[in-house]
Amino acid sequence: MIKWYRNLIDKVLNEKPYFGIGYREGKYKAMIFLPPLVLLFAVILGLAVFFSNFKSYQRSWRAKMNTNEIVVRCDSSIQGDSIKIEWKNSFPPAKVVFYNGEQADVNINKRGYNYFTVSYLGQKIGTYEQFKSDYWSYHKYEFLIKMDSSDTPQSALQIEGKYHKCKLAAE
Length: 171
What we know:
By secondary structure, this protein is α+β, with helices and mostly antiparallel strands. The protein has helices at 2-14, 23-65; strands at 69-74, 83-88, 95-99, 102-103, 112-120, 123-132, 139-147, 153-161, 164-167. It is rod-shaped, with a radius of gyration of 32 Å.
């Protein structure tokens, strides 16, 4: 293909017009300059599409890699299957993120205020508020649930990760 293109350039530069002034020369010049222009246009268009979608692609990829983790540790007197944790961001509705002893497949990567409500046997035992300023940072939420001396379930929250502020006392 390059040899054909080189021969075409030689014809344009060396041969005289065929059917009148500039007819053949104009035809060959169009054939010479059109493929590189089409290629350049395709490259520019491809780069524009790539960069317009890159941020959303990067966001979804990083969100999959940095999904926050919820860990529940409880006493032997607590039934792990009866623990339910709901998460709510600044905007409703609340989503169940821990139920029947397992973390649900819910994306809890949101910045802003995060509210966690811990329930045991249908009874609310704690509400926690956390402000997360960075969407991308990974957090590990560790809920500690135990029975106190009067057989009342108590909960506490420890957070591992950067940029976290949390009210650790249950309300």
